[in-house]
Amino acid sequence: MHLLTEPFEYDFFTNALIAGVLVGALCGALGVFVVLRRMSYIGQGLSQSVLGGVAPAAVAGIDPYLGAVAATLTAGLLIHYVGRQHGVRPDAAIGIVSTAMFAFGVALVSVNRDRAVNLTDLLFGNILGVTTTDIALVASTAVVMAVLGFVFYKTLTFTVVDAAGAAAHGVRAASIELAFTVALAAVVVVSIRIVGVLLIAAVIVIPASTARLVNRSFGPLVATSALLGVSAAVIGLFVSFHVDVASGPAIVLTSSAVFAAVLAGTAVTTGLVVRRTRAHHSEQLAARTA
Amino acid sequence: MTSTRLVAEPVISLRGVTAGYRGVPAIENIDLSIAPGEMVGLVGPSGSGKSTMLRALTGTADLYAGEVSLNGVPVRRGHPTRAIGFVPQLTSIEPDLPLRAADAVLQGLAATSRRVPWYSKAERAKAHALLERLGLAGYERTPIGQLSGGQQQRLLLARAMISDTNLVMLDEPTSGVDLQTLQDILGLLADLRAQGTTILLTTHDLNWVAAGLPRIVCINRRIAADGPPRAVLTPDILEATYGARVRIVRDGDRILVTDHRTVPA
Predict the structure, then answer these.
(1) How many CB atoms lie within 10 A of CB A172?
(2) Are the beta carbons of B115 and A154 separated by less than 8 Å?
């Protein structure tokens, strides 16, 4: 019991837990649409781009958050437009834009070591660094996303299923896709403190992939994915506190373990169903030939 | 033989249209006018621009020259009209999407329905009635991936019909479906037409589909011919469209397009 109550003796843990729950829910819910659009790599791309904004912000002595926001929005828009040009595939656009911005950030950090950014915290997350400002940012982002998700749920799901068909039926699919990329960029920025740049993609993709194994319709899929994201964040933060590992890896490893367990469970269930069906047909065949 | 049918208020109108994607035109200088209640088939080889023409009409292709309008309203890229029911090629829909049949049909109302995450009772009742009409009663809660190709095609047709549009466009609706489903789909389209709906479809199937339509437009980047099957399905026009020689066998009103080496019995 002490293992569960001890972390709350420290204010930073409560802050981290609140932010972690919100980030888990946000990334989990949005992750469904990322996975279904086969854009898993965009989360990785947007998060890598963050360094291209945080590093110049640190060098210029301004708030790194502003740099992160500018970098992810720039990356999101560049990926969106470069990926629509003739001869450039969308996945190539993600690779080009994100690695160029990441390289720019690393280069800037390496020539400004005296004002260097704390790269470890940036890359892997640090629950000690979660402030009330961070919580306010995550909470306001969550509220905005919830409202947008509520209002545009029908048009977003239609666009994910069949963008051309949605456009033909009167949905502004291109605008929805652009708005979704911007929303994803915002979620990536507010998730950095908890998860870290390198692992955000996993927090977006894994809960959604796990939820997809056990759901057959959109609404329950989004709810399950958000719930899995929250669970992984809570368990991961406790593990991070007690084992003294960075919060990002702890959350991602928890999420991965759940995915592996569910995958194994569904494989076993499918195997049992197949075996039962075979046995049933064998019995029928035997009865017919007897 | 290119002709433009002039009618007072066409549902579909393309004038001097050149369109494509990412700077590369797929159709050039297209003039086409389709009147209310017409049923028209677009035929042509792969890559001839049939699907691009549909996408120019839905505002999802780049327009480089000319004017496209639906019901008299100009179509602009990224600014969709709400006048179309669109049935895409089956291959463009992922089969393992987490989507139940009734929910897939209801998506046809996404642009006009109230901005809440659920559909009203009346909307759901309409989707159920359409599924029943298209022979899919009892499949409302079935994930679309568990439906056969023919059932998925009928589902997409239901999605196109649910918004009570006066125009339904179908991209290869009979591709990959069995004979019974093909006949069902053509029957449903004929019913729709009888109710006044304008229908434009693309097809590769000259014999089962195109030959039975009242009007065919042959396209290979440009319009090669436009008219009834008897006038359009000729060896010369089909060779100009497809680049392949064919033999046409006529038996009363029926037309059969075969390989030119085939000797009729």
Answers:
(1) 18
(2) yes
- Which residue, B260, B87, B77, B65, is CA-closest to B173? B87
Domain that holds residue B154: 95-164
What percentage of residues in chain B have a pLDDT greater than 90? 49
Tell whether B108 lies on the interface with A, counting CB pairs under 8 A.
yes
**pLDDT-based confidence at residue A117 (cuts at 50, 70, 90):** low
Shared domain check, B138 and B205 = no
* Number of structural domains chain A divides into: 1
Q: Which residues of A touch B (CB under 8 A)?
A: 36, 84-87, 149-155, 157-158, 161-162, 164-175, 212, 215-219, 221
Contact B196, B166 (CB under 8 A): yes
Whether residues B71 and B174 share a domain: the answer is: yes
Using alpha carbons, select from A34, A36, A32 the residue that is nearest to residue A220. Answer: A32
User: For residue A282, what are the domain limits?
Assistant: 2-289
Pairing relation of β-strands B198-203 and B39-43? Answer: parallel
**Phi, psi for A56 (deg, rounded to 5):** -65, -30
Question: Is residue B243 situated within a structural domain?
Answer: yes
Query: How far apart (Å, rounded) are the C-alpha atoms in residues B68 and B26?
Result: 15
> Residue A1 is encoded by which pair of tokens?
């019991």
In this complex, do B103 and A166 lie within 8 Å of one another by their Cβ atoms? no
We report the CATH number of the domain holding residue A237 as 1.10.3470.10
B53 vs A270, residue with greater confidence:
B53
Q: Could you tell me if B113 lies within 8 Å of chain A, comparing CB atoms?
A: yes
Q: How far is B30 from chain A (nearest CA, A)?
A: 20
Tell which residue, B110, B128, B132, has the closest CA to residue B119. B110
Neighbours of A112 (CB within 10 A): 15
Q: Do the domain assignments include residue B88?
A: no
